[in-house]
Write a structure and sequence with these properties.
The structure is a single chain. The radius of gyration is 16 Å and the shape is globular. By secondary structure, it is mainly α. It has one domain.
């Protein structure tokens, strides 16, 4: 909701190619977060992506024997991003719908 309400209707296609594709690729959906240890700067930068925590949480639940982020960090980050994106999304929705 936060992304959809922040972008004009004419630019929705651009959002998928310029925002969603990198978000999926750098969201650790295709590889574990620990695989980025050879790229320490990138490993820290991708932590701003909420999809990293969702992927790592699912990975920790399904295959706990493989390395992953701690469950505590995953849960705290997901709660933080849920609240942040809900507030931003509702604010943007109110701007578009009311005004």
């Amino acid at each position: 909701m936060a992304l959809g309400c922040s972008i004009n209707q004419q630019h929705i296609g651009l959002m998928f190619s310029m925002v969603m594709t990198p978000m999926i690729f750098f969201g650790c959906t295709y590889y574990p977060w620990s695989a980025l240890k050879t790229f320490p700067i990138l490993q820290k930068v991708v932590l701003i992506n909420p999809l990293v925590y969702a992927s790592e949480g699912m990975r920790a639940t399904l295959v706990p024997q493989f390395p992953h982020l701690s469950i505590t960090a995953v849960i705290l980050a997901l709660i933080f991003f849920d609240v942040l994106l809900l507030v931003v999304g509702l604010r943007q929705f109110e701007k578009k719908a009311v005004t």
